[in-house]
Amino acid sequence: MPFVNIRITKENGEPTTEQKEELIAGVTDLLAKVLNKNKASTVVIIDEICTDNYGLGGQSITKLRKAQKDKNLT
């Protein structure tokens, strides 16, 4: 049974329910096409990660993106 875990940031209202449905269908189709896997037994899980919950260089992604946005406004 194929098991795929997609991790994606949740921000600005995305991913939408429709986008998640498209990801699930697309990944399932890709596994069926490339690896000849049974679609009925393919599991796709999407983990939505808040940008407060991970960081880079010692700062949260939320803080880094805000700093970048502020920099672009000046």
Stated plainly, the CATH topology is called Macrophage Migration Inhibitory Factor
Strand content: 25-35%
Named CATH architecture:
2-Layer Sandwich
Indicate the structural class: alpha+beta
Which CATH C-level class is it? Alpha Beta
User: Count the helices. How many?
Assistant: 2
What low-confidence regions span 5 or more consecutive residues with pLDDT below 50? none
Beginning-to-end CA distance, first to last residue: 52 Å
Strands, total number = 4
Please name the fourth-level CATH homologous superfamily.
Answer: Macrophage Migration Inhibitory Factor
**Mean pLDDT, as a whole number?**
95
Percent of residues in helices comes to 40-55%
Instruction: Give the biggest beta sheet.
Output: 2 strands, parallel
- The figure for the number of domains is 1
Kindly provide the radius of gyration, computed on alpha-carbon positions and rounded to a whole number of angstroms.
17 Å
Order of helices and strands: EHEEEH
Principal-axes shape call: elongated
Widest β-sheet, arrangement of strands: 1-2
How would you summarize this macromolecular structure in one to three sentences?
The chain is an alpha+beta fold and 74 residues long. It is built from 2 helices and 4 strands.
